[in-house]
Amino acid sequence: MTTPKGSPKRGLAGATLGFFVGFAAVALFGPMTQRLRAELSLSPVTLGFALASPLLSGSLLRIPFSSWVDTTGGRKPFLVLLSLSTLGMVGLLLLFNFTTADHLLPGSFSLLLVLGVLCGCGIATFSVGVGQVSYWFPQSEQGLALGIYAGLGNTAPGIFSFLLPVAIAAWGVAGAYLAWFIFLLIGTLAYAIISQDAPYFQLRRRGIRDPEAQRIAREHGQQIFPGRTASGGLVVAARRWRTWALVSLYLATFGGFLALTAWLPVYWSLYLDLTPEKAGGLTALFSISASLARIVGGYCADRFEGEPTARLALSALAIGALLMSCARSLRLSVAAVLLMAVAMGVNNGAVFKLVAKYVPEAVGGASGWVGGLGAGGGFALPPLMGWIAQHDATGYASSFLLFAALGVICLFLAGALEASARHGGDLELVEESA
Fold it and tell me: Mind listing the domains of the chain with CATH numbers?
């Protein structure tokens, strides 16, 4: 039988569901900010590391797992990452159930970090899904498809930032994380049932080799095919200077999105003295706004090209960050953070349109570099923001100056991308091998 199963819509639906389930781990510890700080006597820098621990694995694992997509499709890497995240949640449940009255003991901090890293494996599903979706859709439709995938999947941290404080208040820490574990388990099983790899990978698993596999896949609408092994895809992508420009753009806005989803509960509660529930609600507003704006960014990248879309978004990011750094009222800080959210979402949508445009023969490998190293900002930025907050008189507000600087730097990089595209040629640093 040579007829592939599934359709682009089903491939998109399965990847979006799996990403939504795994990506919720971004909010793993953010709603517990005040509890962690009080019970473990954490400084702003140490608290930043705790909040960022899931983002370490969630960023670094994107590189090998997304390149794996170029050899097997996305389904197998997806299931491995979701299973590891589920295992981490089991560990958290045991930790919370073996502490007294839902309180963490001082010696629990190191174990908490390790389990946070394990739970963060689900975050790494993002780049796997980018490759899985990209192979299903033609290039002319990838911007919108990837915008829908990332936009809807990105809403998970915002939703959990809102729900987790409410669940903790109602059921305690152990009960709230038990509910999360059940959600993660059901979601993983649902992904296994719904998801399908693009036709080419299905045909390869049935023993059909090239060029016959590509011919049949083209008949079923697939346009992009892997051109290298997993490691070869990484090498090809690494040779392109544009890959590293895109890494920088993505670090500022997607790494920034991850960082702020973890950091904003700290800002709202410790700087503006809001309750955990209100802080969670405002963090959810930021996260969901950025996520939905990503769909708009993908559409604009299809309609107006990715480079100018990115430049406009990065300009808005720098302005929003400057406003946050001088905001002394709730009204101004909410307006400024929403401007940052929209800017981040639009730029994120534009960046992955450019990935598929510039590295079509190694989408998984390029997605790994951009998604992995770019998302690494989610791990690196919270401790750095904590350091700024700890050493500056204005405290948590001044930490947003970091994003103003990133926005300006990336504006120049986006301009370089636009100029190189206008003049043609990829300006490779090293010629590709045959």
Answer: 8-422 (1.20.1250.20)
